[in-house]
Amino acid sequence: MNRLAISLLALAIGALPVLAHAADVKIGYVNIEKVLEAAPQAESARTAIEKEFAPRDRELVRFQKDLRDMAERLEKDGAIMSESDRTNLAQEIRSKKRDLKRMTDEFREDLNIRRNQELGTLQRQVLEAIQTLAKQQGYDLIVRDVLYYSDKVDITNQVIDRLEAR
After folding, report:
1. What is the domain partition of the chain in residue ranges?
2. How far apart are CA 63 and CA 73, in angstroms?
3. Dihedral, CA of residue 51, residue 57, residue 58 and residue 62, to nearest 10
4. Closest alpha carbon to 163 in 122, 114, 120
5. Helices 40-77 & 156-164, crossing angle to 10 degrees?
6. pTM
């Protein structure tokens, strides 16, 4: 038993320098989701995207209204229309529905591509801000996905402040 106690004591004494060195490590935590939401660059990107895609959105809304009006006209006046007029209107409605679906799919795809471009730019800016902050304040490690962190290591607001200063 004495040997075991002596071995454990030697192990504990040997670990002291490692623990003392570990105490010098400066660690920070960043809530990336909060930074991406609060960064002024995110709001300006959202505004730019809305402005860029608003005309196409209005065009889609107008196209949907026209299609609805045609369908209502077919439903309301279909019984009194000639067979050829009814058939032509029904074909035109089907054709416009296909056009609307294609236009909507293209709109969504273009919007997603544009959002991803802006998100990539913002993510690069956030990464640069975090790295600059870490270097200037002497951090050894910055983490983002953790189970627990204390407010002492949370540098999220500092990163947001740095992004606001840009």
Report:
1. 24-164
2. 15
3. 170
4. 122
5. 80
6. 0.72
Give the pLDDT score at 2: 56
Report the alpha-carbon distance of residue 91 to residue 94 in Å, rounded.
5
Residue 146, SS3 per DSSP: coil
- Please list the residues that pair with 29 across neighbouring strands: 143, 154
Do residues 154 and 29 touch, judged by C-beta distance below 8 A? yes
pLDDT tens digits, residue range 48-79?
999 999 999 999 999 999 999 999 999 999 88
Residue ranges, the chain, pLDDT below 70: 1-23
Between vectors from CA 121 to CA 119 and to CA 127, what angle results, nearest 5°?
100
Please state, as a whole number, how many other Cβ atoms lie within 10 Å of the Cβ of residue 10: 10
In this structure, which CATH number among 3.30.1360.180, 2.60.15.10, 2.60.120.10, 3.30.910.20 belongs to the domain 24-164? 3.30.910.20
pLDDT value at residue 24: 84
CA gap 78, 83 in Å, rounded: 9
Q: Can you state the angle between helices 83-137 and 156-164, rounded to 10 degrees?
A: 110
